[in-house]
Amino acid sequence: MSKAFLAQVIQDSIGCTGVAANQAASDLVASIVKEMKKKGGFTLPSFGTFTVRKTKARKGMNPRTGEPVKIKAGKTVRFKASPNLKKAV
Q: Which PANTHER family did the record assign (predicted)?
């Protein structure tokens, strides 16, 4: 799924221009990202839940040279599908 796909669905659904649909898709994605930053997660009923999780710093290995590399702590996004989505797919 891409932003262009979302814009096309919005355009077909409400009959607006492509520019307006693209802006609506951009605003939708931006608001989801803002909510995840603010609350650490986002839920779409009957679709699933996105959660932000922290990752610990760890040691890795450069696959080309085999040298050990330090990997910094960070954040990642996890998704858990709702039972309705699992049933539909």
A: DNA-BINDING PROTEIN HU, DNA-BINDING PROTEIN HU-BETA
Task: Give the pLDDT band (50/70/90) at residue 1.
Answer: confident
> How many Cβ atoms are within 10 Å of 21's Cβ, its own excluded?
21
Measured between alpha carbons, how far is 12 from 27 in angstroms, rounded to an integer? 17
| DSSP 8-state assignment for residue 86 | H
What is the C-alpha to C-alpha distance for residues 48 and 77, in angstroms, rounded to an integer?
Answer: 13
* Radius of gyration of the chain, Cα coordinates, nearest whole angstrom: 18
Helices and strands (H and E) in the chain: how many? 3, 5
pLDDT tens digits, one per residue of 38-57: 999 999 998 999 999 999 99
